[in-house]
Amino acid sequence: MRHPRPPQPPSPERSAELRRRFAEEARSERPDLSALCLLVGAEGDGSLDEAGLGAAQVELDRLAGELPFRPGTPRAWAEALRDLLGERYGFHGVGADYRRLESSLLHAVLRCRRGLPILLSVVWMEVARRAGAPVYGVALPGHFVVGFGAEPGLAGGSAGGVEERVLVDPFDGGRLLSGDDAEALVAGATGTTGAAGLTSSMLEPAAPLDVVTRVLNNVRAWAAGRPEQSAVGLWAIELALLLPSHAARLRYERARLLVERGEFLAGAGELEAYAEVVGVVDEAGAERVRGEARVARAMLN
Known about the structure:
12 helices, globular, about 300 residues, 5 strands, alpha+beta
């Protein structure tokens, strides 16, 4: 069975404009999660123009407008989102979605109502936020979910009541999660068992830029298993490098990817620049990277 071809990238001029806006939004005082995810989508899908970006935001607004007015408790909010998005509109995920690049692109998830856990969670969070719900993302290992209620650590976030915080799994249509359910999700991702596998730090709210970083990591992982899609891996790395905080090793990954794509001179230059940074703390490691750069330059002959 042949799989549909992934979406084609935008023009270089369009890409440059998208990246400028992405960097600007990421460095703003309050980064907008939906805007950032849609800009990622536009970088991955050249057919997403300005009208399409606006239409996706309008769709999120429309969905929020269909929620009941102020349902009440966190559980009531969670059930209202489940009823609307999971049951009425059929947003959910299946295993096959992990094989599709579109599962990491917000506009495509809004259109087909399928996607990875983190992108479905973005839909849940953005619709809920627009409706005034106390909502936040929770980056469990290997599986992103959504929390309703007072964020852990905030004033009032630990005062009694079993309905104070509720977790839901948008990948499973918005199923409300018990403590045992959350532990099972963590166990499935980490191999641990019981409550020891689920720590309080795992339940901390995920900041918008952390969510975007994880989305881009998913895109990079998708491309890494498909050498013919190295261009996708490259733009995902380059967007991640525009975030205010990123791993220095991303520059090494970008350099290696350039070499693998046959851009030997550019890759060698990037490797040498990375070696200069690494050399401050690890001269032996820097020398290994310089050796890779010499090999890359030799491939030009």
